Amino acid sequence: MAASPVASLGAGVLFGLALAAPPGPMNAVIAEESVLRGWLAGFTAGLGAMTADACFFALALAGVVTVVQNAPTLRAAMILAGGGLMLYFAVGAATSAQAALSVDSGGETTDGGMGRGFRKAFVLALTNPYQIAFWLTVGVGLLEPGTVDVLEKTPYVGAELAGLVVVRTGSPLLLAGLFGGIVCWIVGFPAALRAAGRRVDRLTPLVAGGSAVVLAGFGLLFVADGLGALL
Q1: CA 223 vs CA 128, 142, 228: distances in Å
Q2: Do the beta carbons of residue 120 and residue 32 sit within 8 Å?
Q3: d(CA 167, CA 150)
Q4: What is the mean pLDDT of the chain?
Q5: What is the CA radius of gyration of the chain?
């Protein structure tokens, strides 16, 4: 069990990478922005999602977002709204993928400016009650004395990784490392996509199309979940 400052910081970075890397709506937006508008647009989109995380952490620390946990109707409405936004952005991603097929320069465009991806990711994150739930439980708990199983919280594969990295909580360095890990991801992921895009001519429309599929899939799940809770 790690306790030194360096170990706490390193475990936080690992935690941040484990949370940010798995496929999902945020990475779909980052991927779309990266291949269509360049590295800076992809990084900016990731910054939007991370900014939402920082807002959730501050609100959870102040006890504000507990309202969502205690209001099932509000939670369901947020899930439904988030699903609707994902479906809307999925249509945009599909349109961009189609347009990229006819762009000779690898599909890069400049429409919407650098703030486009930031706004998309930020709004999607703000309407994601599962992100709120994370900061209400695990996120805030990182500052309280105890332990946390870092890789157990990894989406999709956490059960298989449980017990591999267990660290002491209560150090601000652990939380700083978590955000540091997210920064590493939102810097490296768009860079990797841009590097691959310069070598594979057809990558841009494929990534944009894949982003549309991911957003549509999560959007449908969120809409069904939201409607089920409301009805």
Answers
A1: 12, 31, 8
A2: no
A3: 7
A4: 80
A5: 18
